[in-house]
Structure formats: C-alpha cells, structure tokens
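# nightly structure sweep
# worker-07 picked up a monomer target from the shared queue
# config: single-sequence mode, recycle default, output format = structure tokens
# input follows
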Amino acid sequence: MPINSARKNYGVGIIVPTMNRPDFMIRQLNYYASLNYPDTIYIGDSSDDEKAAVLQKEIHKLKNFLNISYQQYPPGDGVKCIIQLLACVKEKYVTFIGDDDYQVPSALYSCADFLENNPDYETATGKSVTIRVENNQAYGKLTGIHDYPRFSIEDGTAAERLSNHLGVHFNSIVAAVLRTQHMLKYFQDSYVVNDTAIKGEVLPCCLMIIAGKSKVIDQLGLVRQIHTHNIRNADIFDQITGPGWPESYALIRKILVVALIDKENISQRLAEETVKKSFWSNINNQLSVFYPQYLAIVSPSDFYNAENKTKVRTIVAAQFPFLKQIYRKFMRPMLTNKQQLHYEVTQPSSKYYGDFQSIVKSLEHGI
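# output follows
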C-alpha cells in the first residue's frame, strides 16, 4: 500500500543494527525500495569484511532509490551501536528494527501522525504478527504465521503504566515509533547496566512507558521472522540466578525510581514500591509462561503429555480444515472479541491484506 499521506514536516528514520546477515538486510532494503520509502534507513554493520562487501554492493545499487546511511561498527556491543545510530538520525521520529524483520511504512507514518496529535502518548506501534519461512532462510515459502500480541498502555499515571507494562501485558515496545531524541536518551540512560537484554530492551521500554502512554494503532505494523538464527537472550530463570542480576536490578531500581519521581513527583517510598511490585509481577509471570517452552525443549514427552488438548485441537484442524474456517469466520467473532490477526492478514477482504502481501512478495524474492 502507498505511504500514508500523514507524512508532513516530520519523518521517521529506521535504525537497523546487523552482523553477518547480508541476505536478510538486502531483503529488507529491497522491500523498502519497492514501497518508495522516503526517509533514511540507518544501518550499523558489524559484519566481517566479506559479508560487509556483499551488503555494500547492494547499497550502491539502491543509492538512487533509498536514502541509506551506512556505518561500520566493531562487533560485540550492539547497544552501543544502537546509541551511535540514534545520534545520527535527522528525522524527528525514529523506530528500531532487526535486520530479519519488517516495519510497514504506512503504519510508521500513521504512528508518527498519532504522536503529533496526542502529546500524552510517548510511543505508538502497529499490530504485529510473526512469520516462519521454509528452511529458516531470508527467501522462500511462507510456512507459518502467528499473532504477536501488542497492547496499548493508556493508564493515567506513570506508576500504573509501569505496573501494567511489566504485568500481564508485558511485551517489548523497542520497535515502536517515538521521538528520536527521547529514544536516544532512554538508551543512553540504560547503558550503565551490564546485562545486554536489560539495557537493550527491558529498561528503555520501561522508561518509555513512564514517560507517556503507548498506543497500538489499527494497522499492520511490525512483522517479525522467527528462525533458528534469531539472537537469543538468556531465559528469565538464568537471568535472575546469574551472578550479575543483583547489581543489574539495583541499577534498574535506581533509574526507574528517579524517573517515576521526576515524572509525577511521588514519594521515594511509593516509587520504590511500584518498581518492586512491577518487577515481582513480571518475574512471576515470565517464570510460569516460559517454563512450558523450556520443558518442550529439554523434555518433549512430558510437555506434550501435558498439552493433549492442544494436540487434539491441532489434529482436528488438520483433518477437517473447513471446520477451522467456519470457526474463524463465524463462531469466534460471536464467542470472543479477540482478533486472529494471523488469519486476517491472509484474507483478501481484510484491511491488513495489502500490506502483508507486499511482505509475501519480498519473501518470494519477487520484487
């Protein structure tokens, strides 16, 4: 679909750190070129010389079709790379994306337009799905689509928003649209923490939520590819039992307490209680949610015996696909308000279909 006409006197820069994955990065650039993306894509490349040369060659081919700012950075500190990229962004708004994912351009400008008109909101993002591609490659047949739930956080106070964000609605908003200078400051303030997952995602997101509300607009926005090459952080159990956790949490608490007090002039005691309650809830939820995933890896037989209902449901859907279609189209809307976005994006009658088809074409190397 065409770039949203909401683009006025502000732009949305896209920052992309990458390392040794020129095929994914080239795919992404060709996708943006096919949609005539007008603003700058800032690439921080930590690849070895051979793979960097492959990407540089493609960037040269696209120089008349895209605005690309390309810089090489030493490997080993991805968060520092993000900070340095943010410092280069000239657009008023910015978003972050992995080299293997997609940001739908029309949604980016709708998000920026929403933020322009709603100053009490700090971030905005589109709806999201995850995808899988045959053989875990950059190009190939689409083999799976799943919902990637996003949640608007619109509570009136910073304390309520932090508790909500780290509670049942916990998800990353690092790929949202926000003001460039704000995003730069959140990452700079978080950089003192040693833990990469915390300073690169958890803490900046918490600072965003404290600063203002977060909106999910009704457009397809972020599409994440799940594959065997995804960079994996330590799971929650290993994080909180690791030797660096006490020091990291002490820094998190200090930074967030100051941010809460500065935002709403609450007492030190209330700010400390809010941070403690929010993180306790977060750890409790993550431990229960991610344990089954861990069990599925280390003890598949125990996991699948515990998931018989899911197995039966999967078998029925595979054997009688027409029942699944009837359920999705007629029964589910009557029984629940929950949207199945992974289904909607594949339906020609859906408002999300056109944007998703541009991504499908990209996966098929059809641009």
